[in-house]
Design goal:
Layout lengths: L1 E3 L7 H20 L5 E3 L1 H9 L6 H12 L7 H23 L3 H11 L1
Helix pairs in contact: 2-4, 3-4
Length: 112
């Protein structure tokens, strides 16, 4: 199971609601025996578009291109699909190399 990490919202009420919904999703995944992977918004954008500073529109466009979709996607649909694609890419790298791609990325970032 993959899920986006929380980032700070300007609105405290929205952040609280997001945290509660995220907590329920993580608990449900855990109870189902799933391994849970978390990705930062910048990581997801980097994996999909090639830039961690990509706009939502760029992410939507690339998700549609990667999946060969013609119909318009709503923001929450493209966000969910982007997280899934990001996770699939990290998982595929891990399976091919036997190494944890996220751990390697963090090590490279920490050396700078």
């Amino acid at each position: 199971m993959s899920i986006e990490q929380v980032f700070m919202h300007r609105n405290a009420d929205s952040a609280l609601k997001l945290g509660q919904a995220r907590g329920v999703a993580i608990c449900a995944g855990h109870l189902a025996g799933l391994e849970i992977a978390e990705y930062a918004p910048r990581e997801i954008k980097q994996a999909i578009v090639g830039s961690g500073a990509a706009s939502k529109e760029q992410v939507q466009h690339m998700v549609k291109r990667l999946l060969g979709l013609r119909e318009p996607l709503q923001a929450d649909e493209s966000d969910s699909l982007a997280i899934a694609i990001c996770h699939a890419q990290f998982y595929a790298t891990q399976q091919k190399t036997g190494l944890d791609a996220k751990l390697l990325k963090r090590r490279r970032t920490n050396r700078r």
